[in-house]
Every structure is written in C-alpha cells, then in structure tokens.
Design goal:
Blueprint lengths: L32 E9 L6 E8 L10 H8 L4 E4 L6 E2 L17 E4 L3 E10 L12 E8 L6 E5 L12 E6 L12 E5 L10 H18 L3
Antiparallel strand pairs: 1-2, 3-4, 3-5, 6-7, 6-9, 7-8, 9-10
Bound molecules: zinc ion.
Zinc ion binds next to loops.
C-alpha cells in the first residue's frame, strides 16, 4: 500500500509574518494564570472548597479561517461554500461537513447581510460585561443563502417581540471599534418588520423581563 496524500489538506509553506495592527488591551488586564486564592471548610469540618482565579492570555490564530475575521474588520460577512454539494457555512468551515464530500475544501464567498431567526432566547442573566444590557435577545440566525446558523444578539427590539422566523438584518459597530470578532456586528429587525400584537405568551415574557430591568437600574 502506498501512502496517499489528502489533496484537501493545505500545507503552509512559510511561517506567517504577523505584525501587531491594533492593541486595545484594558490597562486593568493582568495575566496571573491560574491561582488558588483561598480555601474554605464547613463548620463541621467535613466539606472543603477553594477559589481558583483564572486570568490567562490566549493566542487565537485564525489560520485558514482568517478571511472571516478580516472580513468583519471590513464590514463583510465571509462564509465558505462547498464546491461539491453547495452547502454554505457561516460560521465558516474549512472543509465540508457532508460525509459524501470527503472533507472537500470549501471556497470563500461573501454573504448577504439579511436572514431569518431560526431560534432565540431572552437572556435574563449574562457574563459580567453584558449585565447592564439585560434583558437581551440571543438568536441563531440563518443568513439568506446559507445552510448553517450563526449565534448573535438581536438588538433594537423589545425582548418579548422576538419571533421565530422573523427577518433580520446585520448592523455593524463603527469601523474604528471593530476587532475582528463576532461582536463587530449584531442583528436588528429587518426594514418594514412589525412586531405582532401582544398576546398571552408575549405578556408572560414581558412580566419576566420587568424585574430584570429593575435590577439593572441598581447596577453602578
Ligand atoms: Zn460538500
């Protein structure tokens, strides 16, 4: 048996020459790695707990998926398309997922900035950086012409007005604030979309949101 190289696997011939283009590190950021900072023992001395503080710098090289991040800086949504089966991926995939395509290498395509909500949830709790914006809508959106769904926020909507299959469009953060990450854009309702009239379910969601709005007001 002879060794056969997979033609779909691309080999890098020379190391990349990376140059720092933009730094936006918060001066408060201090990498301490993993550190145990205390331990606790229950009064009856049977249970133990400890806190592990975690602050670590990651290098995230996008490699062959770099056109995705470069596109975001430019206000473009770049996905990939399998030349064999035609499936279009966003977030992009380097190789097709269909077994019949045998890891076929995909091609880059610029995508439409409109789509439909596949599913969504109203977030009543979040990571620290988003607490003040609660409650907000997180959705999986299928962009027009794309096979897969991408997760992002829907803004400029009352959380109880979100609907399955509602049309949305992409809105970009100002160019100078973009960082080549998914947070460079978000979804908003499409032009001409109107929320449906209030109903029992929407009233229920609205009621659930009320204490969240009140709590957010107490945040400094
Ligand atoms: Zn395919």
């Amino acid at each position: 048996m002879s060794k056969k190289e997979n033609p779909n696997i691309h080999k890098t011939t020379s190391p990349p020459n990376m140059k720092l283009v933009k730094e936006f590190r918060d001066p408060e950021t201090k990498e301490v790695g993993f550190k145990f900072i205390d331990y606790w023992i229950s009064e009856d001395k049977t249970l133990f707990q400890t806190h592990l503080h975690y602050d670590q710098l990651y290098t995230w090289r996008m490699g062959e998926l770099s056109p995705y991040a470069l596109g975001l800086l430019d206000g473009k949504l770049m996905g990939t398309k399998c030349p064999k089966c035609g499936d279009v991926f966003f977030p992009p995939r380097v190789n097709c997922w269909n077994l019949n395509c045998k890891l076929m290498k995909t091609e880059w395509v610029e995508l439409a900035q409109t789509g439909r909500v596949h599913t969504y949830t109203v977030a009543g709790w979040s990571g620290r950086s988003s607490l003040k914006r609660l409650p907000f809508v997180l959705a999986y959106v299928v962009l027009d012409g794309v096979t897969t769904a991408i997760a992002n926020e829907i803004r400029e909507i009352k959380p109880w007005d979100a609907e399955f299959d509602m049309p949305v469009k992409v809105k970009w953060v100002p160019k100078e604030q973009r960082i080549g990450a998914i947070t460079d854009f978000y979804f908003v309702p499409a032009d001409r979309w109107e929320p449906s009239p209030m109903n029992a379910e929407k009233e229920r969601i609205k009621k659930l949101c009320e204490p969240v709005y009140e709590w957010v007001k107490t945040l400094k």
